[in-house]
Amino acid sequence: MSKVTVKDTWTPEGKRYMKELKELSELAVRVGYQREQGAGFATGNDSFRADLVDIAMWNELGTTNIPSRPFMRDSVDKHMTEINQMFEAQNDALLNGSTARDILETVGLFAQDLMQTEIDQGDFIANSPFTIKKKGSDKPLIDTGTMKNSVHYWITKKGDED
User: Fewer beta carbons below 10 Å: N end or C end of the chain?
Assistant: First the structure.
């Protein structure tokens, strides 16, 4: 019985695809807020400055005084069909020549838009009468627009904490 030797060869497209998959496996896209973006707001007569990451967390999870308004979780949970379709489209884009960075940029912008839309259009517990009087609006999460406009994405190496 004779042995058959098989030699794999990669096409240039196959080599490029595998290179981009490797890069994708080493990178991550993060969406939300970065520390030290800062945000100031007034509470009564004194001025209070808090990091926007903390303000987002207080609104997302709630506190003893603020009801949970889960704009981050809802931006994913309410849109799984669109998210899955977007990922399928990105696989096709990768097959058709897009780079890992192109894919992550598209994913980042998509997720950023979902979160901003949820802040703007989410169905949240109404503001308290005190808050409505103070800011002149009954719309939760929208006051100056800082929370919505500060949602960003960034691409990092997997394992980086930034």
Answer: N
Using 50, 70 and 90 to split pLDDT, how confident is the model at 34?
A: confident
For residue 42, what pLDDT is reported? 45
Q: Higher confidence at residue 119 or residue 34?
A: 119
DSSP for the chain, written as a single string: -PPPP------HHHHHHHHHHHHHHHEEEEEE--TT--EEEEETTEEEEE-HHHHHHHHHH--SSS----HHHHHHHTTHHHHHHHHHHHHHHHHTT--HHHHHHHHHHHHHHHHHHHHHH---PPPPHHHHHHHS---TT-SSSHHHHT-EEEEEETT---
Amino acid at 9: T
Q: What is the pTM of this model?
A: 0.83
Q: How many residues does the chain have?
A: 162
